Amino acid sequence: MKVRVEAKPLHEPLAGGTPGATVTVEPIIAGHVNWPLPLMERPGGRFETLKVLRALLTGEPETIVPVPAFLIRHPSAGAILVDTGLHPSIATDGHENFGRLGARIGRPALEPGADVPAQLRKRGLDPGEIPVVVMTHLHLDHSSAISEFPQSTFIVSEPEWTAAASGPRPTINGYRRAHFDYAFDYRTIDFDRGTIDSYATFGRSFDLFGDGSIRLAYTPGHSAGHMSVIAHLREHDFVIGGDATHTRGQLEGDAPLNPRPFDAHNYRRSLQELKLFRKQFPDAIVTPGHDPEFYAELESRYE
């Protein structure tokens, strides 16, 4: 069934921007899932489809990967969250939130107090004080805790919302509609509108507050309308790549690509935009979606 809530288009930047503003970024690890490596990097060779299917059904070879979210602090717009991490209930049972199939494939795990709302409170923020949540995309490991932010405005690309909320085969395509079927404030961005501009190596981007502090880059392919988030720090950019690249090897080297993106052509194109950005701006931070070693090396705060 389609979700009952309707999203509204966002054509102009949100209020709260300040000319020349820079932001800070705090990575948050809010649980882990088990995505076997063949589901993130295609195994290649003979019988590749069978290898991917085996990994999907058995969870082997096991790869425990982080589920990240990001807290961005803007000097005038306040605290902005990117993705939501795993729902607090997963600390005791993942089946209700992830669904039987999602829990079987992903095997989500969360330590008590490691969910995003709890980690925000440790930082002196109440989840109800988060005015904006940007969703890179709506796959279930990113949307799991949407329900915990009923006062927030959620920003998502228009193609992503259409695919997730009303497109065919939601479960097969990675969505769990129960995560976002709430009467919340959803705003969609149409990256084909005339107000969209390019930024550096990214062909289409939206300036969220109109001050250059946070840009949303259209990087579809992994999902129908995937976005990456470009946060402008004091001296360089911090790019939240989302699942446009799963691993550091895909971003910085020649690691095999995702075996089953939603759109293989756009997936390769979006990954190339991220690679070119990383090459052109070597001081910038560019995050892959689920690389354990990468997230183990991240600092607690970037400014």
Structural features:
303 residues, globular, single chain, 7-stranded mixed β-sheet, Metallo-beta-lactamase, Chain A, 25% helix, 6-stranded mixed β-sheet, alpha/beta
| Number of separate structural domains | 1
CATH architecture: 4-Layer Sandwich
Strand count, sense and closure of the main sheet? 7 strands, mixed
CATH topology: Metallo-beta-lactamase, Chain A
How many beta strands in the DSSP annotation?
13
User: Residue share in helices?
Assistant: 10-25%
- Strand sequence of the main sheet, in spatial order? 1-7-6-5-4-3-2
Unreliable stretches: none
CATH superfamily: Ribonuclease Z/Hydroxyacylglutathione hydrolase-like
Number of alpha- plus pi-helical segments:
9
C-alpha Rg (nearest Å) = 18 Å
Q: State the end-to-end distance.
A: 43 Å
On the 0 to 100 scale, the average pLDDT is 93
Categorize the overall geometry: globular
Percent of residues in beta strands? 15-25%
For the record, what CATH class applies? Answer: Alpha Beta
Q: Structural class of the helices, strands and pairings? A: alpha/beta
N-to-C order of helices and strands? EEHHEEHHEHEHEEEEEEHHEH
